[in-house]
Every structure is written in C-alpha cells, then in structure tokens.
Write a structure and sequence with these properties.
There is one protein chain. This protein has about 325 residues and is mainly β. About 10% of the residues lie in helices and about 40% in strands. It has a domain at about 1-200. It has helices at about 120-125, 145-150, 210-215, 220-230, 235-245; strands at about 1-5, 25, 35-45, 50-55, 60-70, 75, 80-85, 95-100, 100, 105-115, 115, 155-160, 165-170, 175-185, 190-195, 200-205, 255-260, 275-280, 290, 295-300, 305-315, 320-325. The chain has an eight-stranded mixed β-sheet, with no helix packed on it. Strands 2, 16, 17, 19 and 22 form a five-stranded mixed β-sheet that branches. A hairpin with a 5-residue loop joins strand 12 and strand 13. The longest helix has 11 residues, at about 235-245. The protein starts with a strand and ends with a strand. Pfam families: DUF4424. InterPro entries: DUF4424 (IPR025538).
Length: about 325
C-alpha cells in the first residue's frame, strides 16, 4: 500500500487512519441491446476480481465504449489516501480479459480544479498530474515563477503557516482517471469479461466500535454513522465486545479495514443481472465483517469466506465493507 504524499510542507494531520477510495465495476452507457447474464464478484483485502457474462440480445453486432472509472484523487487530502500501487497512471494495477485473452485499455487522466481542466498547464510546467513515488512535488524546489503561477492559477492553496511564520501551500487539484476501451458484442453470443485489481483499503489502528470508545458521548455521531453505513448489528457488537474486553486501551490489538465498491453501474443493462454472486474474503478466521447486503441473501460460508447471491438483481446501492480483527 502506498501512502500518497506530495512533499510541499503543509501541516500533517493528526490521524493515523488511511481513507479508502471507492472503486467499482465496468461502466457502459445505458443500453437495451446487451444484457448481463451473470456477475461473480469476489472482494478481498488484497485483490478484487469480477467475472461478467454479457449477452447481445439483438441480431447484429453491438459496439460499446467500456469505461472503468478509477477513483478520483483529491490531492488536498493526499496524506489520508491509501493507494495500492505507485504507478501514477494505473494506480490500482488493473487488468482485464475478454473471453480469456488480455484486453488493452487506454487510461485517460486529467487534473481538474473545479470544472477547469489544468492538465495542460501542469504538463507545460513539467509537473506530474499524480505526484506519487519518485514523482513527488517539493514546492521549495520549484522555480519562484512556477510557484507563483501555481498559486495564482489556483493549483496551490494556502494551508496554514509554518513554525517560522511562512505561508504553506497544498495542491488544489483533483485527479480524474478512467480506463477506456471499445468492446464488440457479437450477435446472439455470450462474451465473458474478467477484471482484477488491487483495492484501496482504508485502515485504522483501532476501532471506535470497541466498547470503551463506542460508549463515549464524544464519538456518538461517528458510531451512529458506522452503524448506518455498515449495517452494524447488535450480534456483531456482542462478538466484538467478547474479543475487545472492557479495557480502555486496545489490549486485543483490534484494527479496522474498510473497502468501498461501486456496484450501481451494474444497473445499466437490458434488464437486471440475472445471476449475481458476491464473495467476501476478510483474509483471517478471526475477523468480523459487516456490510449492508440489501436484497442479497447469504448462501454459504466456506472457511472464513462469506457468500451472497441474488437472481434478477438490480443494484441500487454501493457496497461499503467493514472488517475488524488483528492484521
């Protein structure tokens, strides 16, 4: 996991947590010509894989632009973002296959300030759009004219004062990326599309759902948000309490991992997804999992893996998965 850092010298946030980035499935323009016969989605902390079967329901070939939207990256939140790779273009190590063969993709990446595309300006100044790994930007190393232009054009925003009273700045642009390809669906035939990538996993070295923290009035709103976003049930909390004990300190060394997955793009087809399966692998037998299953029904549990299924499934919400345990 790569911590995104743009070395401009703005104040560090007092937060050991890393935020997850929402990411999800293939995105098409809404169409009545292609149906999704099945989707088999497997979510783990180190890998997400999806296998789709599409059917062209017409008597002629259908060509669609397939877009895989990578998550937006707001560089003003750089220190709190967890990226799984230091590749500035394909920062989730995304791979795709069509009918078993590798399928090339073109990654379109833009830097935006509000609705303004500032990609050309950054390239003119010979600055990376996504400054990760060896491409970090050190504001103090830039020529004075470049620093002034970045500030004047709104690409660098004031971010407090240094200890010696000097103005500090943070980058103010958002990276928007999408992997795009043209896909032909032959008439009256099924096409299998598979993709896999490394997820952006949010993490915290403790969990506010431990009893000594959960019962704090100061954390009441945050606990309520967790219970709503992850559909945390009383049975989940009871099991967590057994493991955590009543100590104020986190003596059980419990931690959080969080994954977000954009599922609603699966509703752009001719009819619902006829057969849908979700597998969640938390990666350890002692880990607790909570999420909002909606219309999904638990089908089985194999070892530490949880499985859910649905027929004629039309996604109306995205997935937010919480995993608590030792890591």
């Amino acid at each position: 996991m790569v911590a995104l850092l743009v070395a401009t010298g703005w104040p560090a946030r007092a937060n050991d947590s890393a935020a997850e980035l929402s990411i999800g499935g293939l995105q098409f323009v809404r169409t009545n010509d292609v149906a999704m016969e099945s989707e088999n989605l497997s979510i783990g902390l180190d890998r997400i894989s999806v296998r789709y079967e599409f059917a062209n329901v017409t008597a002629k070939p259908v060509t669609l632009t397939v877009a895989f939207p990578l998550p937006d990256i707001d560089l003003s939140e750089a220190e709190n973002i967890a990226l799984p790779s230091n590749d500035p273009i394909n920062f989730v190590d995304f791979e795709t296959r069509v009918d078993g063969s590798p399928a090339p993709l073109t990654v379109d990446q833009r830097a935006m300030v509000g609705n303004r595309d500032v990609s050309a300006l950054l390239r003119e100044l010979k600055l990376p759009l996504l400054p990760i790994g060896g491409r970090e930007i050190r504001l103090s190393d830039l020529p004075a004219a470049t620093r002034t232009r970045l500030v004047d054009d709104g690409l660098m925003m004031p971010a407090g004062m240094s200890d010696n009273g000097r103005q500090q700045y943070a980058p103010g642009w958002v990276i928007k990326s999408s992997a795009v390809r043209q896909q032909v669906f032959p008439p009256m035939r099924t096409v299998t599309v598979e993709h896999q990538y490394r997820p952006s996993v949010g993490s915290s070295p403790d969990t506010i759902l431990r009893p000594s923290l959960r019962r704090s009035s100061a954390l009441g709103q945050q606990v309520a948000r967790y219970r709503k976003e992850y559909c945390v049930q009383d049975t989940f909390l009871a099991e967590l309490d057994k493991r955590a004990g009543s100590n104020q300190i986190n003596s059980a060394n419990l931690q959080e991992r969080r994954i977000s997955y954009v599922l609603k793009t699966g509703a752009n087809w001719a009819g619902p997804i006829r057969s849908f399966k979700l597998t969640i692998d938390p990666g350890g037998n002692d880990r607790l999992v909570s999420f909002c299953p909606g219309r999904l029904k638990a089908s089985s549990a194999t070892g530490n893996r949880l499985e859910y299924t649905a027929n004629d499934f039309k996604p109306d919400a995205d997935l937010k998965i919480l995993v608590i345990g030792t890591f």
